[in-house]
Amino acid sequence: SFYVDIISELTPVVFVEGEFEMYKGIKGAFKVGAGRAVWHPSSKFLLSVGRQFVLLGSEELVYYPTAKYRFMTWQPYVYEKFLRFTGWWDSGVAVTGRIPIGSNGAFFEYGAMVSNGPGDYTTLTSSGKRTYPTMNLQGYTFEMFEDHTRQSYNNNNNKPVTWRIGFSPIKGLLARVEGMKGKYDARDNRNFEYLTSEVFYSKGRFDGMFGFAQLKWNAPADPSSDGLWPGGNVKQRALYVVGGYKVIEKQFGINFLQPVLRYQWFDPNVSSDSPTQYRHYGKRQAVDIGLNYSPWEHFLVRAAYRWQDVLKGGNGIKGGDGFTLEVVADF
Hints:
This protein is 1% helix and 56% strand. It is built from one helix and 18 strands.
């Protein structure tokens, strides 16, 4: 992928931002990211209007290849059908801020956002609006990542509110909780409710984080033949913990060398209205071991291997072991 982020400061307290990504090197596949105007009179209050990350999952700290807490090429969550929210920009209005507490650098953090929310395959064409099945033939809901980034048309009248609460008691430690609730289908019938949380910690050469995500949603029946989604209310839950330590930093002529380790656990059917045999179907865990090598600033090579075990499932669910390699340069 190739990212371009353009920021223009109109005044000392107002800037506009435009961003796009050439998605996975696919010819002609450009994904629009941010497109917003921001008013920030102080760190206590920031008003952002336009297309931007939803507040779920601290995407601004983990998504981009250059992000400090990205650690690995693999996305931070294993997922099934709907839980994934990485790389989710949405059009809306957001208010965020940090309020200092005492004199030792502690602060309270808040955020609220009203946006279009998730959608389905409803699209707007020259001949009018076209509505497609809520779930595609592969069993994935509103997976339109390459050029639409979640949805190409605001498919319903529901405007969910996303909230965030955060607290940093000491320098290097930040804990957050976020949530979003609303309806995602074109007929405003199907509910969804996200709850996410992250803890970031950095001290000296060590960086680490913990992530949690839960989704309750009304799932349509899966049109595919695997039988995983007979329809009804479903709860999905995932968590991960990851850390890296720079064994070399600003030594021997290189920027840093950082081994990283991550553990993930995911259950796409914690509870559901489906028959008992579907509960916990697809539950799995994964271990990632990697090495991040930066010979000089603004250049990074990430290499990692994943072992993934299916804890409950049939022949249709694969373990998903694999090796990844990523080269990152920013300028």
